[in-house]
Structure formats: C-alpha cells, structure tokens
Amino acid sequence: MRPRRIALNAAALAVLAVMIFPVYWMVVTAFTSTADIQSETPALWPAHPTTAHFATAVGADGFWTFWRNSLIVTGAAVLIALVVSLLAAFAVARMRWKGRGAFIVAVFAAQMAPWEALLVPMFIIARDSDLLDSLTMLTGVYFMITLPFTIVTLRGFLAAIPAEVEEAALVDGCNRSAAFRKVIFPLLAPGLMATSLFGFITAWNEFAFVNILIIKEQGKRTLPVWLSSFRDVFGADWGATMAAATLFALPVLVVFLFLQRRVGTGMIAGAVKG
Amino acid sequence: MKHRLLAAAAALVMTAGVSACGSGEPPAADPTGAGPAKLTVWIMDGSVTGELIKRFETEYEATHQGLDLDIQIQAWDGIGERVTAALASTDAPDVIEVGNTQVAQYSSSGGVTDLTDKIADLGGADWIPGLAQPGNIDGRQYGVPWYAANRVVIYNKDLFAKAGIDSPPNTRDEWLADTAKLDEGGDQGIYLTGQTWYVLAGFIWDEGGDLAVKDGDTWKGALDTPQALAGLDFYRKLQALGKGPKDADEANPPQHEVFAKGKVAQMISVPGGAARVLEVAPGMKDKMGFFPIPGKTADKPGAVFTGGSDLIIPEASKHHDAAYEVVKALAGEKFQTELAKAMSFVPNKTSLAHVLDANEGTAAMAAGAAGGRATPNTPNWAAVEATQVIKQYMTAALTGKDAATEARKTSEAITSTLNSGS
Amino acid sequence: MPVAIHAPAPDADTGRRRPAPPTGRNGVRRDSWPWPYLLVAPAVAGGVFLLLYPLLRAALISFQHFRMGELIRGGAAFVGLDNYRELLATGEFWTVVLRTFVWTAINVVLIVGISTGIALMLVRLGRRMRTALMSSLALVWATPIIAATTIFQWLFQSELGVVNWVLTSLGLDSFRGFSWFANGTAMFGVLVVLVVWQSVPFAALTLYAGLTTIPVELYESARIDGGGAWQIFRQITFPILRPMFALITSLEVIWVFKCFPQIWVLSQGGPDGATTTLPVYAFKIARALHRYDLGSAVAMLTVVVLTVALVGNLRRMLKQEGAET
C-alpha cells in the first residue's frame, strides 16, 4: 500500500498546486518589482519585494470610493436577501402549504434568469422610478440576483436541523417564533454565514448593471467596474493591476478564511442532511 | 400608475438599502435652480491633457459664481452604451464629447438638443466641414464642432540618430527600409498594434480602395478588393518591424506609455500624442519629431483618416442654458487656441488655423491633412466600429489566417451592418 | 457564472420524515392558512417586481421595434414576430446556439469529471493533506470572478505571461510570444480552463460531502466480493449519489450556459465570434448595434432553450416536492 499512498499524495499535491497557482501568481506579481515582472524569466518568488504596486492601486482615482460603494451595495443586498430568504426557506422547509412545490420550482427556475437581457428593462424601470444614479436600484438588483440561491441554500441548512429539536422546544412551551429564535437560529448560524458569503461573492462581482444604472454620478460606481477597465487605469502595469485584483479579492478571501471552519462544517452538514 | 406602484414596491423592498447607503451620499443637486448648479461634462480620454482641463475648470468656475463644473474623463471602451444610457436618462450629463464618426447616430436618434439657432452665436460660418457635417441631420445642427486631428508619425530623434537616419522617409519604401534599420537589438522600429484600423484605412485609401462603397441605395463592405488587400499587406510588413501586439489596439496598453519608455523609434498618433508622452516622461522633451505618414510616392503623403469630436447637449440635461455656455466656452476662440497648442489639434474654425503655424507636429499634420478622408458617411458606421469586425479581421489576417478569406467574411458582415435599418 | 453555491440534495427534507406523533403526514403539521404565505410574501414580491416584471418588459421589447431612438424617445411600435423571424433567418444565430451547446457540454463534462476525481481523492487522503487541498479549493472558490479573469489575462499574456514561458521552457518553441487571445480555438480553450478552474471547487466539495455519508461497510463488503475500484464506483458510489450528481450537473449546466462576465471581460465574444455564446450574443447585439429588440429576442429564446434542456429536471422536482405536500 505504501507506493499507492505516495502516488495519491503526489497527485493531491499536483492538484493543489494547479488549483492554487493562479491565485498565488496574482499575489506574487503584486509584490514583484516592475523590472522583475518585465524580465524574460519570470521569478516564482519576488526577488525584490515591493509594495509600490499597492500604493499605485490604492492611489488610483476613486479607489476608496469604489471600494466603499461596493461594500455598501453588496452588504445591503446580502443582508436583505438573507432576511427575505430565511423567511421563505423556513416556510418551504418546515411547513406544508398549497403551492409549495410550484414555489420551489420557481426558485430553481429563477436561477436561469437571463440577467444580461434585463439590463435595458431595468434601465427603463430605474429611469421611470427616478432611481438612476442611485445605489438603491443597484442594491435591489443584487438582492434579486442573490435571492434564488440563498433560498435554496438556506432551505438545505434548515432541513438539516432535525424537526425533533423544534418539536421538543414546542413541547417545552415555547411558541413557534420563540422556538425559532432560541433553538433553530443558533443551529443555523453557520448556514447563515455560508449563505451570506456565497451571496456576497456573487454581488461583489457584478459590473454590467453598474455601467448602465450609474451614469452621471461616477462617484457611485463600484470596484468591479473599475477593475474590469483596469487597462484604462494602469495601462500595461501588470504589477499594479495584480495589486488591484488582490485588493479586490481580499475582503472575500479574508471573510472566507475567517469563516472557513464553520462554513466548511456547515456546508457539509447542509449538503448531507443527517 | 404603473410607475407609482413600482416605485412603492421598490421602496418597500429596498428600505434597508436606502438606510444603509443614505448617509454617505452627497445631497442631490437641486434641479429647480436655487443653490449652486452642478454641471457634468464628459470628455473623452486622450482629448485634453489633465493640466489643461483642470485650468479650464478652475477659470470657468471663477468667472461663473455658484457653478460647480464636474469634468469627467470617459474611457473609449463601452462609451456607446454609456452615451446612449445618458441620452435616454432623465438627468443626463450636460455636455458630452462624441467622436465625429458617431455623432450622426446620436443626433438622428433624438435626445440631442437642436442648436441650429445658436450657429451664428457660435460663429459657425467657418466651422470646418468635416466636423460640422456629421453633426448636422436634415439641416438641423446637433453637434458643435470641437477639434479635428489626423495621424502623423511621431519619432524618437535619439533612436533615429543612433540608426544613422538623418532625414525622415518620404515614400513607403524608404519608410520600410528605415524602420527595418531602426528595429535593432532592444529597440522597436515602430510600435504599431494589430488593430489600429484607421491606419489600415489610410493604407487602403492609398491603394485606391475603401472600407465600404455605396452602390445606389445599398452599402457594400470592400475589404476584399485587391486594393484593400494590398493595403493590408503593407500594414503587415510595417507592423512586423516592432513588438506591437497583434491582438490589441493602440489603447491597450496606451501606446504613448510604451513610446515613453524610449525603446520605440516610431508610433502613429495624432500629434497630441507627444503631449501625452511628456505627461509620462518629461525627459522626452525635444526628443520627439514628426513627419506625415509617407505615401506611395514622394510627392504625395499617405491618405489619413480625419478624426475629431463634436460637443452635444443631451435633451435630458437639466441645465440647458448653463450647458450651452460651457459649450460656447469650449468651442470659443480662447480655449480652442489653448487646446490646439497643447494637443496640436486642428481648431474647429478655419479662421483659427494660424495658431498652429509654429508647431512642428501640426505642420506634419497639415501636410497629411491634404489627403484627409472620412469613414463611410452613414449613421450605421458607428455600429461597424462597435462590432469591431475590422479589428478582428486585422488580428486574424496578421496572425496567419488567409487574408482574402477573412476579408470576404468581414466585408459581408460590414455589408449587412451598414444596410440594416436603425 | 454565478459563484458556486452550496446546494442541498433534492431530498432535502428527508430529515423531517422521522415519525413525530403529534403531526400529520410526513411528520410535519399542516400549517394554518396565513403563515406560510406571509413568510414567502417578501420573496415573491421581490421576484415579481425585480425579476418577473423586467422579464415581461424584455419579452415585450422582443415584439417591438425597439432601438436607440425608441430607448431615448419612447413610443416603440409593435412588430409581432419580426425580430424572431429576422433572428432565425440568420445562420449566425444557429451557429451561436450550436457553439453554446458545445461550450456547455465541454465545461460540464470536465467540471463533473474532475470534481468527482478530486472528491474521491479527498476521501482517501490523510487528514492534513485533505485539509490543505480543501483549503486551496475553498480559496479558489472565494476568488471573485473579475479578479480571476484579470489573473488569467496576465497568465496568458503573450510576451510576459507565465504560461508561454513555461511552454517555451518545455521546448514548445512555437509558443514564444503566442497570442492566446487572438486565436479562436486558443481563446476558447483559455475560457474553458478558467471556467472549469472556478467551478471545480464547489462541485468537488459538495460531492466529497456526499461521499462521506456512504457507510464504509458498503465498500468493504463490495471489496470482499472482489469488486475493482471502477465497479465499486459504478455499483455503489454513483447510485447512492445519483440525486446529488443530477443536481450538480443541472446547476452547472445553468451556470455554464449563462456564463457571461468571464467571456465578456476576456474576449468580448471574439476573436471573430469564436467565443460568442448566447448570452454574449444577446449582449453584443444590444450593446454594439443598439438592437435592443433583437437582443431581447435572443434572450427570450435562450430562456426557452434552457428550459427545454432542463424540463425533465424541473418536472421531476415538481413531482417530488408536490408529493410531499
């Protein structure tokens, strides 16, 4: 068995290396001096590490504003989606009602929504409701983009919590909402975190709607727009571009690493459902 | 009713969003007039140096009490979509710069303020026709000419001296020979990206071809003619004498930044490109020279695309009168003179042409301007540019695909785009 | 593609099915009238106003003459099926449809195949190696799409990109200065690598979670019976995880089919349309040509195509969920 073990570990290492390399390369490039970036032979490790690229990225026009806007819009959208989907997920996972099946299918189907085709209708709706150039409309759109799968996900996590736990609380004299608050909610915390993280990643990425819903108030644009047009900002400065990408990925990565243990276990529990 | 309902619903759903982001936002400008008005002006990237635009802003605000001028530099990438959205919005930017190949499309779509009765006030009698005509639809003037420019070759004097070339080339053959000589060691003979389509257009015109031709009422793409293919062939030879990427245009990365590093002997650019080089590398001062794009024979410089911009005021601007004042200042003699000097552009009026007399770059441009040409004159041309078929054709042909086949395919695409209704 | 999400297996509610005396069928009380409806009301309201209503507007636009002028001035005229007729008459549309299917098939097969491999590997690994691999998967999963797309532009850059350097170092000299983004097939390949790379973590981690639920005894008895690794997978692992495979596959089909930002940022559907899938096509028509009517028609047909492709899945879902009511 020994050689097989070694082969297995070697294969695992290879997979790990391939998976992680692009992220690694982003961070390394961000710290590598421009001269080294432009040398014929790329160095796997920055020989002369520098933080100059980060200074360039952070110093670029409006970086902090875009960063803040992204955080506000994404945070608000995920928060609303979380509350709304928790209610819906509870109804789906714990209650019997006419139309439940149709609702579930509708939620699944909503994931097929052709969002790129809704740009123009959304623009018209925003214009007619006087919501152009406002982060509110953007928040609403992101809320809706994340909602279907936050419902699906939360429902999974809820279903993973045995009904007996809740029944027991009800028997103990709690009413339904108290049972939810005191028993279900704490058990659901990892699921809520995982779900919000997934929602966060999705909304954090979006840029097509920003381009059409935020017109005049450029101070209300968000980070992905800025990053996706990075060549206008930095030209051929790959160091600064990678620094910008790192800063863009950072909030998500930090939250993810911070929550990873709980998210990991929560995800498995949710996926497997006792 | 529908709108009210929707707004109410949106408000319901988004209450949290509102409260979350309400604090950080500046109070919306009061459109009814009281208080300082904020005017938004969109200027395209590369039109004006940062310094000049800052100065204009400061001076304009100083002479117009209570006016806040917000000049935003727009990237070319995706600009069509943004201008359309702006024209269709209810609170558009007040002044927008649009390219002279695109102004016809916007003007014919509605949403642009008709400035016909202001022509006299703006001194429109001697506007240069290449800018005034595209902004004029059915006798109504929508676009106000801003500036024109055509491409010249900007060269690095040091590298020319190093290669022992003491006078700029006069014909295509000399140009190729000199460029080959300059393409030595770490230096690039010329930095020409693979998708610089208006340079290709010039070469095609030199051969007697065109991008598209009109036959009766229908347009036909013409990249597959022998003349056009000969133009491409020359482009290919020239492009190979440097390291310009074959799959990008001159904005990615910005070619003036590449040139500023001092390892590139020539680039094809409007003369104002030199000013942008100096923004990045002030040390290049006095090291840059200009010559017209060489033609097939020494007596006639190469044909060039006359580029330029018009200014428009969207119908949806909430400050038409104030916006007009800004347009008037931007198109007026004082700013035109400064702009022409700083960027080496051709001013919007023939009567101002003299301000360029002492400028080496514009002298080269004026020599080339004799052979100035325009893109096919139809509002649908903007769509051809937007679909980027010509750029993709160039990349395909330069990276080894069969040029004739690709040219035929692309011409068909151009034909169908130009003949589709709007 | 939307970020990978954790999704439950379709039999999500089995946890509740254990007998609980005071309740009705399936172990859950039938709830009094208003509550379930009140609970889903906000979600339904959001869906109606922010998804259904815009979708209907898009559908309406697809039956109108709606271009730049109409967007700006309003007053679009109804033209019936003209846009659809125009679309279906062009060969390009069918090319794009075909390409989208090829694109989806290649990606989904690779994603599901590689993920299954990694999941099976994870089960067999020692604790430390497994944690390391799972963390790297999680890291990739959490990398935002735009950042990842930017990274790939840099990796595959023609002059300084590390991919060309590696290939050249391996003796493949034709890759010196090779323009990945200029060649249709190469561009397509880069996009496949990008999308597969981003999608594998979700599928692998979910499948791994599923694998851990299969009792070890099942494997042991199969092994005693002399089953090889492949037989065990076919006869035990796959049947048990079939619902999970079905769900992952259909989610990946949706996500890959609809995949937009990666393609748009990296290639804008080029070069020469080689990476134009249906969503990119719709966006391109609307944005570049200002043919919002035709773009909407493409989008409507996209929804139809996707629905048809997944109709079996949807029906199965409705039946299953309905049975529990």
UniProtKB/TrEMBL annotation, chain A:
SUPFAM superfamilies: MetI-like
Signal peptide per UniProt: none
Segments forming domain ABC transmembrane type-1: 67-259
Location, primary (coarse class): membrane
Keyword Cell membrane: yes
CDD domains: TM_PBP2
Transmembrane segments: 7-27, 71-91, 103-126, 141-162, 183-204, 238-259
InterPro entries per the UniProt record, alphabetical: BP-dep_ABC_trans_perm, MetI-like, MetI-like_sf
Subcellular compartments: Cell membrane
Bilayer topology annotation: Multi-pass membrane protein
Keywords: Cell membrane, Membrane, Transmembrane, Transmembrane helix, Transport
Family designation: Belongs to the binding-protein-dependent transport system permease family.
Name of the protein in its database record: Carbohydrate ABC transporter permease
Taxonomic source organism: Microtetraspora glauca
TrEMBL record, chain B:
Signal peptide (UniProt feature, chain positions): 1-20
Domain of life: Bacteria
Keyword Transmembrane helix (UniProt): no
Nucleotide-binding recorded as keyword: no
Alphabetical list of Pfam families matching this protein: SBP_bac_1
Keywords noted in UniProt: Signal, Transport
UniProt cross-references to Gene3D superfamilies, sorted A to Z: Periplasmic binding protein-like II
Family: Belongs to the bacterial solute-binding protein 1 family.
Protein name: Extracellular solute-binding protein
TrEMBL record, chain C:
Main localisation: membrane
Family: Belongs to the binding-protein-dependent transport system permease family.
The name this protein goes by in its record: Sugar ABC transporter permease
Topological relation to the membrane, as annotated: Multi-pass membrane protein
Stored PROSITE patterns: ABC_TM1
Segments traversing the membrane: 35-56, 101-125, 137-157, 177-197, 240-257, 294-314
Keywords carried by this UniProt record: Cell membrane, Membrane, Transmembrane, Transmembrane helix, Transport
Pfam family, one: BPD_transp_1
Species, as recorded: Microtetraspora glauca
ABC transmembrane type-1 domain segment(s): 97-315
Region of interest: Disordered: 1-27
InterPro entries hit by this protein: MetI-like, MetI-like_sf, UgpAE/MalFG_permease
Cellular compartments annotated: Cell membrane
